[in-house]
Amino acid sequence: MNRRENLKLLFTGTLASGFLLTNCAPEDKKLEYTPRIEGGTVGGRTEEEKLIDQKLLSETFLNEDERKKLDVLVDIIIPADADSPSATEVGVVDFIEFMMKDYPAYQTPMRGGLMWLDHHSEDNYGKVFMALSKSEKMEIIDQIAWPDKAKQDMEGGVKFFNMLRNLASTGYFTTEAGFKYLGYIGNTPNIWDGVPAEVMKKHGFELPEKYLDTYLKPEERGELAQWDEEANIIRSNS
Amino acid sequence: MSIEIKSSSEPYDVIIVGSGAGGGMASKILSEAGLAVAVIEAGGDFDPAKDEDRTQLRYPWESPRRGNGTRIRPFGDFDAAIGGWDIEGEPYTRGKDTSFDWFRSRMVGGRTNHWGRISLRFGPNDFKRASIDGLGHDWPIGYDDLKPYYDKVDKLIGVFGSKEGIFNEPDGFFLPPPKPRLHELFMMKGAKKASIPVIPSRLSVLTKPINNDRGVCFFCRQCNRACQAYADFSSGTCLVHPAMKKGKVDLYTNSMVRKVTTDDSGKANGVSFISKMDMKEYKLKARVVVLGASACESARIMLNSKSKSHPDGIGNSSGMVGRYLHDSTGADRMGILPDLIDRERYNEDGVGGMHVYTPWWLDNKKLDFARGYHIEYWGGMGMPSYGVGFSMDTMRKFIKDEFGNPSPNGGYGEGLKKDIRRIQGSTLGMSGRGESIPMYSNYCEIDPNVVDKYGIPVLKFHYQWTDHEIKQAKHMHDTFEEILTNAGAVLMGEKPGPETKYGLATPGRIIHEVGTTRMGNNPATSVLNSNCQAHDCDNLFVVDAGPFVSQADKNPTWTILALSWRTSDFIVSELKKKNI
């Protein structure tokens, strides 16, 4: 089903109702599912917006050392598991690179936080963070990853790691792999006919009796609306 | 035909400044009466059905910022509205101790590309507030004057809802409303325990077709991204473009109006505008000028339109242009519903907004503030975007394992990853939107010291909330806590106190600003008469929210549309009678 046919059907009432109950076959999907970083935002952009995106994309904020550190950190935050990839596998560091430029308030806390990690490693182990063993790295992470348990003098590190957790998580869960992991179902033409019956039952809900005849019925979506003189909508099956 | 630049000697019948709700409706009604109309829009043309303009059904990964807001689109990278609170080269200023934020959309359809499609009629009391509580002023018209126009707007544009018979929440010609979402059922349960009504919402979204030109809603929850099927209302898709197809309507885009021009007798004879394409000034002539540039922008144009006959600005012999500026009040609260952690997945996008709402339900005579508010509900399983997975440093503790032990805040690794999945769709909240008291002392004026990049003097805002709004916000928060707690939610964040005016939003932030060119029977205390015609210039009209004497606890768009239709009918009739 291409977009034009899709649209044509959306515009024509009755046909649309039938079509919308079925989904497109997977091979018809035309969207690009890999994260788009290089091209800027798609859709309805003004010239001003295109220029802003191009400028941000042409600049580099993170240096090579910072990126290497972030590769390690974001995969600690969001590792791979049996059926989903890790943060680095879906380009989370590229996303962080972009956000540093799009939202410059991130820049100093990020750069300074990554530096602080080295200072803290030097002070405790005599080595920079990347030179630490896996278990040494995790000892440091455990000092800053748990806000309610962290020591007071780790407050700066906790704040830094909170920012990193936010960015790594949001960068991960806004990819196709992240959507799949979350189980989000939507962003596609469909017909809303209320909460599924089994879910209603599980939570002990019933629709209010008063509105049962008022709510939209999927089968009437295609009929041109008409009202009687008292402003009641005329229902085909009432 | 969309015209970028034209220097025309051929006069139009009517020039309309602005293509939002008011200007759009005027363009339709006036052109259908056979008049030659020019619509002048400060931004570009826009049609969401064109794929190059489409942001609907995009995924966050189609944006390098994953849908996060920008200066130009503060409500998200895929929001349809182009402009924002802070437009490059178009500043505004504020008086001492004033915070006022001004949201503008520079595009065909204006701010109707952004709004929540909440389409509420003002009720009989909303036109007569001074008679009820002695504050502010009554409108010179009443509900009965507007009712026939509300009816026509309902049928022309479409709005879903339920007939309720609530006196001050008049019913209309409704399309069937959608069934509530799961979190909305929890809200209904919580509100019921507190004896607070929750009824199907009233949104201008087509759940059934109303004509052959527009499609029906396919439930993507993205009205704010503009609908490619035209299944929601925006002025460009439902009014301006159809008017251009059928009638004599020329659309001038990227054209920033500087002033209304006048002849020696003081009658309006056209407008002067700057084209953003070549930064040159152009003039157009017309028999009638209609301002629909938004309450504040229309006031700015009038104040900048000085001449011998109108030394203080056209329509401003009363000195009232810019006065009585008022926005809706706003406050919000959020919670997390343990019952919704680990919830079942299904498509719960629904329409582009809430499926239920609470109309104002109390009697102010028994309260310590003057006017009411309605409650909007939000939450549930929307599409994840920038921000998903945030705040696990404070929110993770709400997630419990099988033995009832809470997860530790923060953390990392597979456990964190799972908890982010478990918490999806379990937060919910509500927003109060209420009526404020119109004050002479709240106003916008021309700042003589600052011009925008087109050389046009800018607005300076002066605004203070009164005790009524502050107490109302306090009441909102008490109500929010009661409903959320009754619904089984755990409250998040702190309840705001007097030091933050109980979380009352900054004036302008609710984007319902009205009142700057108010109507009235007395030319000494109002700008327009009851037909939205300037008291001191009879071929100048205002069709945005400037004419509102008071902003009810309703969203203003439906009333702008009804009022603009009524004003347009009056213009046609006056032209026929050769009165103008």
Automatic annotation (TrEMBL), chain A:
Domain of life, source organism: Bacteria
InterPro entries for this protein: Gluconate_2DH_su3
Protein name stated in the entry: Gluconate 2-dehydrogenase subunit 3 family protein
Protein species of origin: Belliella alkalica
From TrEMBL, chain B:
Keywords, comma-separated and alphabetical: FAD, Flavoprotein, Oxidoreductase
Top-level taxon of origin: Bacteria
Cofactor: FAD
Pfam families per the UniProt record, alphabetical: GMC_oxred_C (PF05199), GMC_oxred_N (PF00732)
Domain Glucose-methanol-choline oxidoreductase N-terminal span(s) in chain numbering: 185-327
InterPro entries xref list: FAD/NAD-bd_sf, GMC_OxRdtase_N, GMC_OxRtase_C, P2Ox-like
Record family assignment: Belongs to the GMC oxidoreductase family.
PANTHER family for this protein: PYRANOSE 2-OXIDASE (PTHR42784)
Protein name: GMC family oxidoreductase
Organism of derivation: Belliella alkalica
Lineage start: Bacteria, Pseudomonadati, Bacteroidota, Cytophagia, Cytophagales
